Amino acid sequence: MFAVNEPLLFGAPIVLNPYFLVPFVIAPMVNVAIGKLFIDLHLMRGFMYVLSWALPGPIGAFLDTNFQWSSLVLMAILLILDALIYLPFIKAYDATLILQEQGQGAVAVAGATDGPAVAEATTATEATATTTADTVDKADEQPLKKLDQQLKVLVLCAGGGTSEQLANALVEGAKATGEPIVATAGAYGSHHDILPNYDLVVLAPQVRTYYSDLKADTDKLGIKLVATKGQQYIALTHDPANAVKFVLDAVNNTEDDKG
Predict the structure, then answer these.
(1) Distance CA 79, CA 88 (A)
(2) Domains of the chain, residue spans
(3) How far is CA 43 from the centre of its chain?
(4) Burial readout 109-136 (b: 16 or more C-beta within 10 A, e: otherwise)
(5) Using an 8 Å Cβ cutoff, are 212 and 237 in contact?
(6) 3-state SS string for the chain
(7) N or C terminus of the chain: which is more exposed, having fewer CB within 10 Å?
(8) Predicted local confidence at residue 186, as pLDDT
(9) Residue 132 has what pLDDT?
(10) What's the burial of 71, exposed, middle or buried (CB within 10 Å: 0-12/13-18/19+)?
């Protein structure tokens, strides 16, 4: 409703979710086609003004078309139609989640009724697997150099919503690990004046294509720049400790990384 849809797109999730690939692509195309049909049939005049992208959809359309009531009818039709397009895919995805919940419940019930011997054996197996995994992880991990001074991180995305998620994860991770990291979210395009205030810039997947342009600016200022990919970015927003590790890796690397 307010054109800030990143929390829903990445949190539901819709992006990188194969169930929603078709409606994610089809719904906008249908919307544009129906809007064009409204204009071609003279049911509504074309958009006359360029207003803020953050206006709620129906209000923005009403103002952009110079207060035409037919634009509100168009918005209502599109909202209903988009809901119908997404509905079968939502049901299919929901069915898989229900199966997962039922499977987890069955495992829990089995564990409660199998008796002490089976439970002890399962616990021992899990402990062995965990120990093995920890050993492999510790062997692969290289100790990261701790920060000896405050690190200011700027996370940039298209509108500021997605970047806020990673910035919050970094702040939370910094508190948990004790690293002196300060993170701020911003929108690409409005970063020029504040860029010199930061030590590291992280690009969200939506603005990854601007890496080369931004790198010219960060190199002049001696600022590190790193870009992220979709699945990687989503994982970082849900794992504050790993988000801090990602930042430390970027700082410790001798060259900028595109993720």
Answers:
(1) 15
(2) 1-139, 151-252
(3) 38
(4) eeeeeeeeeeeeeeeeeeeeeeeeeeee
(5) no
(6) CCCCCHHHHHHCCCCCCHHHHHHHHHHHHHHHHHHHHHHHCCCCCCCCCCCCCCCCHHHHHHHHCCCCHHHHHHHHHHHHHHHHHHHHHHHHHHHHHHHHHHHHHHHHHHHHHCCHHHHHHHHHHHHHHHHHHHHHHHHHCCCCCCCCCCEEEEEEECCCHHHHHHHHHHHHHHHHHCCCEEEEEEECCCCCCCHHHCCEEEECHHHHHHHHHHHHHHHHHCCEEEECCHHHHHHHHCCHHHHHHHHHHHHHCCCCECC
(7) N
(8) 87
(9) 43
(10) buried
d(CA 147, CA 38): 58
- Whose tokens are 């958009």? That residue is 47
Its pTM surpasses 0.70: no
150 is catalytic: no
Order of strands, edge to edge, in the sheet holding 181-187? 181-187, 151-157, 200-203, 224-227
**Dihedral over Cα of 173, 178, 182, 188: its sign:** negative
Q: Tokens 């931004």 label which residue?
A: 214
Higher-confidence residue: 239 or 48? 239
Q: Which of 27, 147, 154, 157 is catalytic?
A: 157
68-117 pLDDT per residue, tens: 889 899 999 999 999 999 999 999 999 988 888 887 766 555 555 555 54
The CATH code belonging to domain 151-252 is 3.40.50.2300
